[in-house]
Automatic annotation (TrEMBL), chain A:
<keyword id="KW-0067">ATP-binding</keyword>
<keyword id="KW-0677">Repeat</keyword>
<dbReference type="InterPro" id="IPR053466">
    <property type="entry name" value="L-arabinose_ABC_transporter"/>
</dbReference>
<keyword id="KW-0472">Membrane</keyword>
<feature type="domain" description="ABC transporter">
    <location>
        <begin position="6"/>
        <end position="243"/>
    </location>
</feature>
<dbReference type="Pfam" id="PF00005">
    <property type="entry name" value="ABC_tran"/>
</dbReference>
<dbReference type="InterPro" id="IPR050107">
    <property type="entry name" value="ABC_carbohydrate_import_ATPase"/>
</dbReference>
<comment type="similarity">
    <text>Belongs to the ABC transporter superfamily.</text>
</comment>
<dbReference type="GO" id="GO:0005524">
    <property type="term" value="F:ATP binding"/>
</dbReference>
From TrEMBL, chain B:
<feature type="transmembrane region" description="Helical">
    <location>
        <begin position="25"/>
        <end position="47"/>
    </location>
</feature>
<feature type="transmembrane region" description="Helical">
    <location>
        <begin position="328"/>
        <end position="346"/>
    </location>
</feature>
<feature type="transmembrane region" description="Helical">
    <location>
        <begin position="297"/>
        <end position="316"/>
    </location>
</feature>
<feature type="transmembrane region" description="Helical">
    <location>
        <begin position="189"/>
        <end position="207"/>
    </location>
</feature>
<keyword id="KW-0472">Membrane</keyword>
<feature type="transmembrane region" description="Helical">
    <location>
        <begin position="80"/>
        <end position="98"/>
    </location>
</feature>
<feature type="transmembrane region" description="Helical">
    <location>
        <begin position="250"/>
        <end position="267"/>
    </location>
</feature>
<feature type="transmembrane region" description="Helical">
    <location>
        <begin position="131"/>
        <end position="152"/>
    </location>
</feature>
<keyword id="KW-1133">Transmembrane helix</keyword>
Length: 511, 404
């Protein structure tokens, strides 16, 4: 167990104007699961890109020792050859090819360029068995869920005789069951002697599987913790990541709840693609002024679909139900009407659905409410700049100016730009869909603080989140959804991880 | 945090500024170099007053269509049908003017409306039925070309009445001639005065804008660049104005083109419609979820393109004084190339009117210069193709270098 398989020494990598890695050292023992943690921008992904040859030797300083020998990789193929395989956060699978074709893509089982399909399928079957995926090798990637796609990626890694498997945020888009299955698989591999490096924000998962934890901060190594020598708590890890002890992950708030703002009754929606399948059944809920209301549920419970169908019918069809704002029926049949009715929807996927990444902060901020900074269709640039500057300082968006492109911002700051955009429409109720997904702990705290401020100003907040502690820490009331239905409504006092899970499980038995 | 750069908001150096804006300056420099090159190799024919007038007349329709095409490309689409729209509009204008004897002041607006309808007919399928614009406009290209043959019966129609021809061959009359101060060399005082006023206004507006920016703390380009840019544009404009003044003055088309360039620059940089098109091209889903009616915007981008193509079609027909079924063949490629040379991105969301206009003129000067040199159409095409590739490679190269 004490055999060092990988050692990175004094790694320094600079980009124009930024030192992304500064003299980082990193040691991995053979046969362990080594967790790499740190806030966004701490340098985790950069370090792994150096290791896997995405940044070729020569573009960084320092040495990589693998099996005790100095190695330098100039391409990804070089690192793969000796068994270092990286699985990126954004999966590299071709959606319209089959599982088998994807696994052997670029590495086909072929003689003289002719693919040997029987062998390909047989070997795929073997690999799928190893990762516990019960699918036909001929199934297309697009037809299986993200969790299974992740397993296909791992099967692909296994096909390449992997010795050191690197997983970048493997569970970020997985639900709890799929995450558990994946972690179990990693532990199974560990028994067989394989080494893994796992990058993750989910500290509870890291606690579950990691043998050692290396913490990066601001491009440097902070420390490596050995989970077998001492009991490492989540707070201990967080302390290392942020450089200070975080007493409370959720800012305190005294709720001051007013009248009902948004009320939705008997919301029925059919599936966007499978048009005769009803997806949401009689969903009813309300959000009051100054109240933070959560929607808990597993992946696929219908939370995002509820929000999107409500917000200008952006999802689903045959939508029926009643929506009122302050007791009066409102028309939310198109997005402009929904905005006019006082709704704002912060999407779960800020890069694909929230921001125009190639546009600057200012243009993104005013996009939903251009009429407020223009007259007769002509934009008043000074006014626009002022609006953007105000939100930039109010929400503490870290950037060098309002003219910085959104693509160059960190996740937390991008999310703040999306929030700016919607705050500028002056909504009564904000629907926040996974508002802190993929952003670091410091920025999460800031987002919670903003949520609290908005509630204090009398806005209603409807928050969808897959992180139960986050819902429990911020919400006054939590609805639990499962299979397209609201299955429970819990007050702050009643709500706990157990009560939420119980509600989900019980409803699952009924239907 | 690495991403936190709020602590050092140092002023960008001149080098940084040049690197960030190399595209725009590079384009202008390229145009000037190409012009000087052809001036040299054609023994000064390029800048002769007659030839400059010709250059404007020959390229005006490409520039006009490039304005619409830029919006289409920024919106994330493409329009292959403009060459066929040009031909069809030429054909129906011939029918209306020559066969039916309708007056030009009726025919011109009617043709613009028909162009708009043709654009709408395509925009509908792209915007509301979500069929890729490449396919829709490829179909449009074939359909409109076919209709042109049907309408013309396969034969050219001409000649056109005088007042319609003025659209492309007319010049702004020299209403300052009565002053009788015109030196012998200058045949058209209006042209010279107009150019002087224009350059003066550009300088004034530029300086005023800088002052306002300073007051509001907005980033200005370094003064040296402003000065050089103004000097280059000023000298070139005055020179061209002078040359035009020694011939027949300002072509009507130049005025139309100038007004349209100004209008579309304004639309793309200052109007909400322009902003929304850029946002839509940058990320259609995000734009839609921000409350932008992306379908309607796409639809109108195609309507707009149709109208501009119709205008271009009338200018060409008036210039050739004949409507032929083969008019405008391959124009779509010149227009699209102008946009891409001008820095528009094929994936949408990026591109400038000034870029497209300069791109169109780069193509135009090359066409013109190579024709004067007597280079055959075969090599002309080859060279233009390579220039297009080089320009886009320059973009990609710069972008990758920026990433480090």
């Amino acid at each position: 167990m004490d055999n060092i398989i990988l050692e990175m020494r004094g790694i320094t990598k600079t980009f124009p104007g930024v030192k992304a890695l500064d003299n980082v050292s990193f040691k991995v023992r053979e046969g362990e699961i080594h967790a790499l943690v740190g806030e966004n921008g701490a340098g985790k992904s950069t370090l792994m890109k150096v290791l896997s040859g995405v940044y070729p030797a020569g573009t960084y300083e320092g040495e990589i020792y693998y099996d005790g020998e100095v190695r330098s990789f100039s391409t990804i193929a070089d690192s793969e050859e000796i068994g270092i395989i990286i699985i990126h956060q954004e999966l590299a699978l071709v959606p319209l090819l089959s599982i088998a074709e994807n696994i052997f893509l670029g590495n086909e089982v072929a003689t003289n360029g002719v693919i040997q399909w029987p062998q390909t399928f047989a070997r795929t079957q073997e690999l799928l068995k190893k990762v516990g995926l019960n699918e036909s090798p001929a199934t297309l990637i697009t037809d299986i869920g993200v969790g299974k796609q992740q397993l296909v990626e791992i099967a692909k890694a296994l096909s390449k005789k992997v010795r050191l498997l690197i997983l970048d945020e493997p569970t970020a888009s997985l639900n709890e069951n799929d995450s558990d299955a994946l972690l179990k698989l990693l532990m199974e591999f560990r028994k067989q002697g394989m080494t893994s490096i796992i990058i993750s924000h989910k500290l509870n998962e890291i606690k579950k599987v990691a043998d050692q934890i290396t913490i990066l901060r601001d491009g440097g190594t902070v420390e490596t913790l050995d989970c077998h020598k001492e009991d490492i708590s989540e707070d201990r890890i967080i302390k290392g990541m942020v450089g200070r002890a975080l007493e409370d992950r959720y800012p305190p708030r005294v709720p001051n709840i007013g009248d009902t703002l948004l009320e939705v009754n008997n919301w029925n929606v059919f599936h966007q693609h499978h048009r005769d399948r009803q997806f949401l059944h009689d969903v009813s809920f309300k959000v009051r002024a100054g109240e933070v209301v959560g929607i808990a549920g597993l992946m696929g419970a219908g939370r995002t679909e509820t929000a999107m169908s409500l917000f200008g019918r952006s999802w689903g069809h045959k939508i029926t139900g009643e929506v009122t704002m302050r007791g009066k029926p409102v028309d939310v049949s198109t997005i402009p009407r929904a905005i006019k009715a006082g709704l704002a929807y912060v999407t779960e996927d800020r890069k694909q659905l929230g921001l125009v990444l190639i546009n600057n902060i200012m243009h993104n901020t005013t996009l939903s409410n251009l009429s407020a900074v223009s007259s007769n269709g002509v934009i008043d640039e000074r006014k626009e700049a002022k609006v953007a500057s105000d939100y930039r300082s109010k929400l503490r968006i870290r950037s060098h100016s309002i003219y910085q492109e959104a693509v160059n911002l960190s996740g937390g700051n991008q999310q703040k730009v999306v929030l700016s955009k919607w705050l500028f429409t002056n909504p009564e109720v904000l629907i926040l869909d996974e508002p802190t997904r993929g952003i670091d702990i410091g920025a999460k705290y800031e987002i919670y603080t903003i949520i609290n401020q908005l509630a204090a100003e009398g806005k209603g907040i409807l928050m969808i989140s897959s992180e139960m502690p986050e819902l429990l820490g911020t919400c006054d009331r939590i609805y639990v959804m499962n299979e397209g239905r609201i299955v429970a409504e819990l007050s702050k006092e009643e709500a706990s991880q157990e009560s939420i899970m119980r509600a989900i499980m019980r409803s699952g038995e009924k239907h | 945090m690495v991403a936190d750069t709020s602590t050092h908001t140092t002023k960008p150096s001149i080098g940084d500024y040049l690197r960030n804006n190399i595209r725009e300056y590079g384009l202008l420099v390229a145009l000037v170099i190409i012009m000087l090159f052809f001036q040299f190799v054609t023994d000064g024919v390029l800048f002769k007053p007659v030839n400059i007038t010709n250059l404007v007349l020959q390229n005006s329709f490409i520039v006009i269509m490039a304005l619409g095409m830029l919006l289409i490309i920024v919106a994330g689409h493409i329009d292959l049908s403009v060459g066929s729209i040009v031909a069809f509009i030429g054909a129906i204008s011939a029918i209306m003017l020559v066969k039916w004897g309708l007056p030009a002041f009726v025919v011109i607006p009617a043709c613009l409306v028909v162009g708009g309808i043709m654009g709408a007919a395509q925009g509908y399928w792209v915007a509301y039925q979500k069929i890729p614009s490449f396919i829709v406009t490829l179909a449009g290209m074939l359909v409109f070309r076919g209709l042109t043959y049907v309408v013309l019966g396969g034969r050219p129609i001409g000649p056109f009445p005088k007042e319609f021809q003025l659209l492309s061959t007319g010049f702004v009359p020299d209403f300052l001639s009565f002053l009788n101060v015109t030196p012998d060399l200058i045949k058209n005082m209006v042209a010279l005065v107009a150019v002087l006023l224009l350059v003066g206004y550009a300088l004034y507006a530029g300086l005023r804008n800088r002052r306002i920016n300073e007051r509001h703390g907005t980033e200005n380009e370094p003064f040296i660049f402003f000065a050089i840019q103004m000097a280059v544009i000023g000298v070139v404009a005055l020179f061209l104005g002078f040359q035009l003044a020694t011939y027949r003055g300002l072509p009507n088309v130049l005025i139309v083109m100038g007004v349209l360039i100004a209008l579309y620059t304004f639309i793309t940089t200052r109007s909400t419609v322009g902003r929304r098109i850029y946002a839509m091209g940058g990320n259609e889903k995000a734009a839609k979820l921000s409350g932008i009616n992306t379908e309607r915007l796409t639809f109108y981008a195609f309507v707009n393109m149709g109208v501009l193509a119709a205008l271009a079609g009338m200018i060409i027909t008036a210039r050739l004084n004949s409507a032929t079924p083969k008019a405008g063949v391959g124009f779509e490629l010149d227009v699209i190339a102008a946009c891409f040379i001008g820095g528009a991105s094929a994936s949408g969301g990026v591109g400038k009117i000034t870029g497209a206009v300069i791109g169109a003129f780069i193509m135009g000067v090359m066409n013109n210069g190579m024709s004067i040199m007597g280079i055959g159409i075969d090599y002309q095409q080859l060279i233009k193709g390579l220039v297009l590739l080089a320009a886009v490679f320059f973009d990609v190269y710069n972008k990758n270098k920026g990433k480090g």
